[in-house]
Amino acid sequence: MELFKCRKCDAKYPKEYFHNCKTKPNGIHEVCKFCANEISAMYRKRRKEEQRQVAHIKLTSSTKKDYCKMYEFLESIGYDLNSDKSIHEQFCLKYGLKPIKREKKSRNVYNPQDCQKKTPTNNRRGLNE
User: Fold this and answer.
1) Do residues 114 and 64 touch, judged by C-beta distance below 8 A?
2) Full residue range of the structural domain in which residue 107 is found
3) Same domain for 48 and 80?
4) pTM here?
C-alpha cells in the first residue's frame, strides 16, 4: 500500500486519508483530511468573528443626522412620530395588515424628539428677551 505525506503535519497516510483532487497528478490533495478539517474549523471561527465585528459596525454606524433624516422622511409621508403607536403599527393600520406584537426593545439611539429643531435664542445665556 502506497503512503502519502501530508504537507501540513508531515505524517504519512494511505490514499483514503486524503480528499480527492482532480487537478493534482496523484489525484489527492496535499493535506490530509484531519489537517483539512482543522484548517476549515480555524477559517470558520475567524470568519464568524469577522462577521460579528462587521455586524456591530453596521448597527452602530448610524449617526444622529441619519436618524433625523429618516424621521423627517417618515413625517413627510404621513407617519405621526408623536403617536403612541409605533411606525410598524401605523404602517399595518394604513395597509390593513395585522401588526406583529413584539417586546419593546429600544434599539434606536435617537428618538424623534432629539431631532426637533431648537428655537433660536438671542443671547448667550439662552434667555429670550
Assistant:
1) yes
2) 64-115
3) no
4) 0.42
Extended strands (E) in the chain = 3-5, 12-14, 18-20, 28-32
Classify residue 32 as exposed, middle or buried by CB count within 10 Å of its CB (0-12, 13-18, 19+).
Answer: buried
**In sequence order, what are the beta bridge partners of 14?**
3
All three cell numbers of 4, joined, read 502519502
Cβ atoms of residues 68 and 115 within 8 Å:
yes
| pLDDT recorded at residue 61 | 67
Set of cell numbers at residue 105: 426593545
Q: What is the count of structural domains for the chain?
A: 2
User: In a 3-state reduction of DSSP, which class is residue 118?
Assistant: coil
Tell me if 89 is assigned to some domain: yes
Q: Are 129 and 99 in contact (CB under 8 A)?
A: no
122 lies in some domain: no
Inter-residue contact 11 to 32 (CB < 8 Å) = yes
Q: What is the pLDDT of residues 90-117, one digit of tens each?
A: 899 888 988 888 776 655 567 777 777 6
Is residue 36 situated within a structural domain?
yes
Q: Take residue 114 and report the three cell numbers written for it.
A: 432629539
